[in-house]
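Entry type: protein chain
Record version: 2
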Amino acid sequence: MTTRIAVIGAGLMGADHARIVAEDLSGATLQLVCDMDQSRAKSVADSLGATDVASDPEAVIARADVDAVIVASPDFTHTPLSLASIKAAKPVLCEKPLSQKPAECLAVMAAEQAAGRRFVQVGFMRRFDQSYAEMKSALDKGTLGRALM
């Protein structure tokens, strides 16, 4: 099964995510690129072979031909688009920050708990780097002692 991914936001980060989906992510296809600037969305979509472009992110999330979403739009949109993705039962990779407001982050967590599963992954770029994975392993094994934060 191929996962059809929509990228919301066609700026620097969104274009990079779109390229990774189109060129490097096996089992996935770049279904569409969404941006308020239609010409920018079209430019990214055309260069990477996306099926469609759009300008309404909430409509994109609701589409039946979208299985998962990458949110790389302006920061203030991250929480509402993540909540819309949870409501639509679609996994979302959200660029950081999820929000600058703790209450909004808690609202996303509460929505996931109410849905009964996790949908949102915040894109912490170092999380899967080898050195960070080794540090996590050392912490888990107790090699470094107890973490203070």
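Comment: The chain has one domain: 3-141.
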